[in-house]
Amino acid sequence: MARPRTPSLVVIAYDATKDRGLHELRLTVNGVRKWGDILSRGDTIVFLGVLDKVLHPLGYQAKPCLDSIETSIRVVKETVRKKVDGYVNMLLRSAQQCEDQRVSIKVKVIAGCPVKQVILQELMACNAAWVVLDRHLKRYLEFYLMHIHCKIAVIEDSLAVEVVRAHQIEDTDTVEHKRFYSMSKRVPVFNCQRRSAYIASLESPQICLKPTQGKQEPQRIKGRNQRKKLMGKQVQEPRERIVEKEGSQKGRKIHLRVARCFSCIASEHEGARKIIEVPGEE
After folding, report:
1. Whose CA, among 51, 92, 93, 223, lies 20 to 30 Å from 211?
2. pLDDT at 5
3. Which InterPro entries does the annotation name (predicted)?
4. Are 86 and 107 in contact (CB under 8 A)?
């Protein structure tokens, strides 16, 4: 009897210094899904971005090495966080589509250099089954073919995914482990109900309630079954209903108003209704 397949990692490596658009990310995910050999049920897609430059507060580009004195740790963390949040927002639709195959998407951004060494170290650490190299990383293809043990695919300039090596290799060199700053976040999946509620909350107008001049707003009673004591006797909160009836009596309108009726324990006419005639304006 065959053993059930263990879920694996499919790493999509890219240069985080380059800008990526929503259309490019969706085509990449769709291209990986079309290849039946790359992605299987229960796998995890990891968007692995390497940031080898950060903008220094003084205005120049600096290497994001933690051991370098010219790099601000706060700037590195803030830049990485913005990159992660940006990619997560652009991959929300793709994560919803991959949910049908029980495939999850995760974003991880590492600040370090050089790019090819950082990617190699991360692939060795996570033991990925596949790596899909971005079109900007194809210049390192020969390096990865020699040092990476997993299967390899590349993204062409047309954003199509092409398989370069469909088998794994055993003999690879050891990689020196270096310390880099990284941040990862899983792309959430919203169901239809939560998604509809979220869209409705954005489309619904904001209502500002203001009291009308000349009219007294009724006070809201706190508590559903709150009771008050009046003259030492318990009194239930009144109910008020207004009934308007127009009639003609010598050219005048007559309005009938149902006034508040208090139901008192000691009252002999509990629950009675009192009708008051209020003459209208001429």
Report:
1. 223
2. 67
3. DHQS
4. no
User: Cis peptide leading into 4, omega within 30 of 0?
Assistant: no
CA angle, 188 then 193 then 197, to 5° = 90
Q: How confident is the model at residue 94 (pLDDT cuts 50, 70, 90)?
A: very high
**Structure confidence at residue 66 as a pLDDT band (50, 70, 90):** low
Q: Reading across the β-sheet that carries 161-165, which strands appear in turn?
A: 161-165, 151-155, 130-133, 9-15, 44-51, 104-111, 181-186
CATH topology of domain 9-195: Rossmann fold (3.40.50)
DSSP string over 161-204: EEEEE-S--S----------EEEEEEPP---HHHHHHHHHHHHS
Which letter does DSSP use for residue 53 in this model?
-
Pairing of strands 239-241, 254-261: antiparallel
pTM beyond cutoff 0.70: no
Please tell me which residue, 167 or 205, carries the higher pLDDT value: 167
Domain coordinates in residue numbering, the chain = 9-195, 229-279
